[in-house]
Specification:
Number of domains: 2
Order of helices and strands: HHHEHEHEEEEHEEHEHHHEEEH
Structural class: alpha/beta
Radius of gyration: 21 Å
Shape: globular
Number of strands: 12
Strand order of the largest sheet: 1-9-8-7-6-2-3
Helix content: 25-40%
Number of helices: 11
Distance between the termini: 40 Å
CATH class of the largest domain: Alpha Beta
CATH topology of the largest domain: Aspartate Aminotransferase, domain 2
Largest sheet: 7 strands, mixed
Strand content: 5-15%
CATH superfamily of the largest domain: Type I PLP-dependent aspartate aminotransferase-like (Major domain)
């Protein structure tokens, strides 16, 4: 999986590369609304730029994040559960380093994991052991958890397909945690982007003293040029993890600290409902265009997993092998916020198909 991602990155950076329809970036009409004064005011006019800008020592920010999770999830989070950071990649690096420093060289996981975490595991000598066949949303999903204490990593939602991990799966994992004392790390980078308008995330109700959750407001607002994310950790681990993160990564830029506050304020207020509606409108336009021959229903996020009516090799795209997924031949991940990519896909709706690709008439 890592080698495939490296090949895509190599082509993506070449002049004249195919249109990358599975990309990672955002683009929407609400950026200025979400940024507020940050959209037009230099950070130096909003904060003291002569000082280091520490996130973890910002008690107000940690309190806002805890309050947001209490409101959204109905769960008793406090500032003593919050480790803020400058983006999810840094927090993934801190988690992987913490595993090594605490002697954990073997972890279990529910496929798929984000490729950056797979990269860290490989580089740090951590053995990832699959604990399931298939992906959690699939009908044939077969979860096989070990009956000993370990660390389990899972991603919720399963981002490439916009599918949430079913409640029954999380209930099974929670009961296993209580039985074995195992830790669970939830990569919730795409959480709080539910298409049904609800805010509560099921993973918030895994045992809090045995669960770490990664949450990413930059994804929530699809404003990736600023960097902020946070971990929700057991209270007994907070100081240890926060100290490690600070010593690995240092302080953030003052602009990112201001954004972290702004993102928390937006999440405590109107939220990202307008953005989610925009994603759904783009999805409807693509479906109605006739450019797709099949698609998977979406529950969350801004990715669609679908099959084009034309060969997907016409585009630079990520198919199932990038996500440890079998089956679904011809399906690719489509970024529903990539306007040029969507326009390129919709333009294929009227392209005559080669005879080998035409549907057989009855």
């Amino acid at each position: 999986m890592l080698e495939w991602h490296e090949l895509v990155e190599a082509e993506r950076q070449q002049p004249g590369a195919r249109v990358f329809v599975s990309d990672y970036n955002g683009g929407h009409p609400f950026i200025e609304d979400y940024l507020g004064e940050l959209a037009h005011t230099a950070p130096g006019r909003l904060a003291d730029i002569s000082r280091y800008s520490g996130l973890d020592e910002d008690a107000s920010l940690r309190a806002k994040i805890a309050e947001m999770h209490r409101q959204y999830d109905g769960a008793a989070y406090t500032p003593r559960h919050v480790v803020p950071g400058g983006g999810s990649s840094g927090l993934l690096g801190t988690f992987a380093t913490w595993l090594v420093l605490t002697g954990r060289r073997r972890v279990h996981y529910v496929p798929p994991v984000y490729y950056k975490l797979a990269y860290l595991f490989r580089r740090m000598g951590i053995e990832p052991v699959p604990a399931a066949r298939g992906h959690a949303y699939q009908p044939h999903f077969d979860l096989r958890l070990p009956e000993q204490r370990t660390v389990l990593v899972l991603t919720d939602p399963v981002w490439y397909a916009g599918k949430r991990v079913p409640a029954t799966v999380l209930e099974q994992i929670g009961a296993w945690q209580e039985r074995t004392g195992s830790l669970v790390f939830v990569d919730g980078t795409f959480q709080y982007m539910r298409w049904d308008g609800q805010r509560r995330e099921r993973s918030a109700h895994l045992p809090r003293d045995k669960t770490l959750r990664l949450v990413c407001p930059t994804k929530y607002l699809s404003i990736h040029g600023y960097r902020c994310a946070h971990l929700l950790v057991p209270e007994r681990l907070r100081e240890e993890v926060a100290e490690l993160h600070m010593n690995l990564h240092g302080d953030v830029a003052v602009s990112d600290r201001l954004f972290a506050h702004r993102a928390a304020d937006v999440m405590l207020g109107e939220g990202n409902r307008a953005l989610v509606r925009h994603v759904r409108d783009n999805h409807r336009a693509l479906v109605d265009s006739g450019a797709l021959s099949a698609r998977m229903p979406v529950e969350a996020g801004f990715f669609l997993f679908a099959r084009l009516r034309v060969p997907h090799r016409w585009f630079l795209a990520l198919d199932g092998k990038y996500f440890e997924l079998d089956g679904h031949a011809g399906y690719i991940r489509i970024n529903l916020l990539n306007r040029p990519g969507l326009e390129a896909l919709m333009a294929t709706a009227d392209v005559p198909l080669p005879s080998a690709l035409r549907p057989v008439s009855a």
